[in-house]
Design a protein that fits this description.
- There is one protein chain.
- The protein is an alpha+beta fold.
- Helix 2 packs across helix 3, helix 2 packs parallel to helix 4 and helix 3 crosses helix 4.
- The chain is elongated, with a radius of gyration of 24 Å.
- The structure holds adenosine-5'-triphosphate.
- Adenosine-5'-triphosphate binds next to helix 1.
- Adenosine-5'-triphosphate (ATP) binds next to helix 1.
- This is Spermidine/putrescine ABC transporter ATP-binding protein.
- One of its GO terms (molecular function) is ATP hydrolysis activity.
- One of its GO terms (cellular component) is ATP-binding cassette (ABC) transporter complex.
- Keywords: ATP-binding, Nucleotide-binding, Transport.
Length: 356
């Protein structure tokens, strides 16, 4: 297992930067997910680590050794890493064990050593009983496991995975997520996993680097991202809930911030910042009742309601010009045009200097 370090990495393909001053330290044996919307630069970042692209600026090191930047460039095959892609690209005419051993033959690994490593890799992914099958005799999930075994057989210190589960149906995806987690634990190899699916990143990663427009917005554990997002993009992209604009009007003795939302002042913990803030609230901390609002509640008018399996997405008007969208568990049915009371039991305020 090896560490990965990126320092001030930029990448242009001619025009505007696709990656802009990205710095990231991944520890030995860590499972890190790169998460972000389509086009934010996740795959480009992974390809730079792999050596399939050269950075326009900055330094990339693997295992403490410079791989790219400042006049250095180490070829992908000399970086001691393996890659698993969405398209598993197995050789259709070869058996599972020959597919898994292919990279070892290319590297001229001796026959006995090759057999041992193929067996070990197939054991890890639970496919030793299928060594003589051809890819077309396997399910999609099994084929992806062969692709993972092919990568494990090389015994790399680092495994890079680019949306490897994107082609699989939801059930298979969930069981393969467990499989990846188990393989990671068993091998102790450093994993860097690209996904645009926040639930997948949460389920898999020790830490998640949330990316947007070529930059890393925040890198933290899934729990920290959920409970303590540092930007409104992270608050909105990771987990469900709502991000509401608030006015920070002071501090309470408890050190919490006093925020004005829709004319009511609430106390919430948060990052001490500017006069404006975003209040990030999660569905489990929102209570919506049909009764007229009391002191603790914000009065609002329901504009629309969509059921989202266990949760409702509710569009609300808080006063004349403030519209918000909340995801909440509604214990009582709510319908458009109702006057409701919203109680926010918990939230987290982050600075929003650019909010007007
Ligand atoms: P997705 O989830 O859709 O795969 P991503 O976050 O992985 O997106 P990238 O594939 O890294 O995003 O692409 C980031 C941006 O860089 C996109 O705007 C893309 O068009 C551009 N880009 C990527 N590779 C190249 C290339 N070889 N030449 C020119 N532009 C590129």
């Amino acid at each position: 297992m090896v560490s990965v370090s990126l320092s001030g990495v930029t990448k242009h393909f001619g025009g505007a930067p696709v990656l802009d001053d990205v710095s990231l330290d991944i520890r030995e044996g860590e499972f890190v997910a790169l998460l972000g919307p389509s086009g934010c630069g996740k795959t480009t970042l992974l390809r730079l680590i792999a050596g399939l692209e050269r950075p326009s600026g900055g330094i990339i090191a693997i295992g403490g050794k410079a791989m790219a930047g400042q006049g250095t460039f180490i070829e992908p095959e000399d970086r001691n890493l393996g890659m698993v892609f969405q398209a598993y690209a197995l050789w259709p005419h070869m058996s599972v064990k020959d597919n898994v051993g292919f990279g070892l033959s290319v590297r001229k690994v001796s026959r006995p050593d090759r057999a041992r490593r193929i067996q070990a890799a197939l054991d890890i992914v639970g496919l030793s009983g299928h060594a003589d099958r051809r890819p077309h005799e396997l399910s999609g999930g099994q084929r992806q496991r062969v692709a993972l075994a092919r990568c494990l057989a090389l015994e790399p210190g680092l495994i890079l995975l680019d949306e490897p589960l994107a082609n699989l149906d939801a059930n298979l995806r969930a069981s393969m997520q467990e499989e990846f987690r188990r393989v990671h634990k068993k091998t102790g190899t450093t994993f860097v996993f690209v996904t645009h699916d926040q639930a997948e990143a949460m389920a898999l990663a020790d830490r998640i680097a949330v990316m947007d427009k070529g930059r890393i917005e925040q890198i933290a554990t899934p729990r920290e991202l959920y409970e303590r997002p540092l930007t409104s993009m992270v608050a909105g992209f990771v987990g469900r809930g709502a991000v509401l604009p608030v006015h920070i009007v002071g501090h309470a003795d408890s050190g919490r911030l006093r925020v004005d939302i829709g004319g009511r002042v609430l106390e919430m913990p948060g990052v001490n910042g500017t006069a404006r803030g975003w209040l990030s609230v999660r569905p489990e901390h929102v209570e919506i009742t049909q009764t007229a609002a009391n002191e603790e509640q914000l009065p609002a008018i329901v504009e629309h309601v969509t059921y989202r399996g266990g949760l409702y997405e509710i569009g609300l008007a808080l006063g004349a010009d403030r519209k918000v969208k909340l995801e909440a568990h509604a214990h009582e049915p709510v319908s458009p045009d109702c006057l409701v009371g919203i109680k926010l039991k918990k939230g987290w305020v982050l600075p929003a200097p650019d909010l007007h």
